[in-house]
Amino acid sequence: MQYGVECLVIDDAHDLSMPHLIFLKELTDHLQLSFPSQTPLGLCLVAAGRGAAIPLKDVFDQEDDDVDAISATIGSRSPLL
Q1: Domain total of the chain
Q2: CB within 8 A of 22, min separation 6: which ones?
Q3: Which range of residues forms the domain containing residue 51?
Q4: What's the pTM?
């Protein structure tokens, strides 16, 4: 029997800063490069919103190369809902 981690769940993701998100992207990218034969690590960001506000929208709407890289990485995989 083999054990491993399939998905990293981050609760209160709405409290994460851009450096935190960049770290998570680098972590998942490095794991994929280090273990290419393994299934990529899933990432689930659990965020709370208030009213009509969309959590993390202001972060992902920024015009920044880091944001573009994170958005492209998230968009390239099948999201878990």
Answers
A1: 1
A2: 66, 70
A3: 7-76
A4: 0.63
